[in-house]
Design brief:
By secondary structure, the protein is α/β, with parallel strands linked by helices. It has one domain: L-arginine/glycine Amidinotransferase, Chain A (5-stranded Propeller), CATH 3.75.10. Helices cover 23% and strands 26% of the residues. The protein has a five-stranded mixed β-sheet, with helices on both faces. It has a four-stranded mixed β-sheet with strand order 5-4-3-22. A hairpin with a 4-residue loop joins strand 11 and strand 12. The chain is globular and about 50 Å long. The two termini are 19 Å apart.
Length: 359
């Protein structure tokens, strides 16, 4: 790890060259994970979680380097024992030392953007999804990663204030268009991230720091979503002009009306270049409830790796249908189901716990 810390830049101080947020399907240098250690995230069901992570790593290492954050040598040894028992190891796994509160890399890692032929880490602030108190260590993850990866880091500020944003709240197509939800970013009462920012302010932030030219605003996320509307449980780009959108067939289900409204919004949506958005419907599993709590079980929380797409599955008849739809959309990649019934008890699955580092 380099001795010097990351160089902090602002969008105004940096080169005037335009920025671009790469799409997740573009080539990766690595995938970043944090080995699970917060047992309170999976109360009463933590025991299988390291083995779910092991399965994820096992399916990533044939395609790319996997960097795993651990807080100590002891934690690293525990992780290595799990991986070794599954036959995983070697040069394709690299451990990085970092103290974290939780392990959801999608939301705490920096956004990686391209600018003038280099990769830049953009640090957005983190406040525990405006819900939890244990987030102070997670706020430092962008700096830790920028230093470890040898990248310059840019602070995302607007009107002199830091901007709070989780990676799961946005999804881009690599060509200047971004998906998000009003429920997550424009809420003023339930889980407010930036109460003073308007829709126009957010669009200006995304333009300045991520190079975004068009933002598509959906309305609500899915039922059971602890983040209050993250887009990565709902709608994802699978190509420059194509998205998958979760749809619910049962009109009596809590998800039915909000998802149909989002579908209607996408009918009128335009990409940065002016083209219409192509929408592919993705089913949802049957409602998954544990200890009286509805969980955010969604096939949209898949992760696109260099040669594979890892998809959460839920012992549901729609598992096979969702995997088939995604395999047709990613014919050059192997679509792999990862059992996530235990994992989703932590209120997130594969996309939530991972973050790509582009080449």
């Amino acid at each position: 790890m380099p001795a010097a810390g990351p160089l902090n830049l602002s969008a105004e101080q940096d080169s005037p060259a335009p920025r671009r947020l790469p799409a997740e399907w573009e080539p990766h240098r690595s995938t970043v994970l944090c080995w699970p250690h917060q047992k309170d995230d999976w109360p009463g069901r933590f025991a299988p979680i390291p083995w779910v992570y092991t399965e994820i790593v096992k399916n990533l290492v044939p395609h790319e380097l996997v960097r795993i954050l651990v807080p100590s040598a002891t934690a690293q040894a525990r992780a290595q024992r799990c991986l070794q028992r599954a036959g995983v190891g070697g040069d394709q796994v690299q451990f990085l030392r970092a103290e974290t509160d939780r392990g959801w890399m999608r939301d705490t890692a920096p956004a990686f953007v391209k600018q003038a032929g280099r990769t830049l880490a953009v640090r957005f602030a983190f406040n525990g999804w405006a819900k939890y108190a244990n987030w102070s260590r997670d706020r430092e993850v962008p700096g830790v990663l920028a230093q470890a990866l040898g990248l310059e880091m840019s602070e995302a500020n607007w009107n002199g204030q830091e901007v709070v944003l989780e990676g799961g709240a946005i999804d881009g197509n690599g060509c200047g268009t971004l998906l998000t939800t009003a429920e997550c970013l424009l809420d003023r009462k339930i889980q407010p991230r930036n109460p003073s920012l308007s829709q126009a302010d957010y669009e200006a932030v995304f333009a300045a720091h991520l190079g975004i030219r068009r933002v598509i605003w959906l309305n609500q996320g899915i039922a059971g979503d602890d983040t209050h509307g993250h887009i990565d449980d709902l709608c994802r780009f699978v190509g420059p002009d194509t998205v998958v959108l979760c749809r619910e067939r049962q009109a009596s289900d809590l998800n039915y009306r909000p998802l149909e409204e989002n579908f209607e919004r996408l009918q009128d949506a335009r990409l940065a270049g002016g083209a219409r958005v192509q929408v592919v419907s993705l089913p949802l599993p049957r409602p998954l409830v544990f200890d009286g709590l509805r969980l955010p079980a969604s096939y949209a929380n898949f992760y696109i790796a260099n040669g594979a797409v890892l998809v959460p599955t839920f012992n549901d008849p729609n598992d096979r249908l969702a995997l088939g739809i995604l395999q047709e959309l990613f014919p050059e990649r192997r679509v792999i189901g990862i059992h996530a019934v235990d994992l989703v008890w932590g209120l997130g699955t594969i996309h939530c716990l991972s973050h790509e580092e582009p080449t």
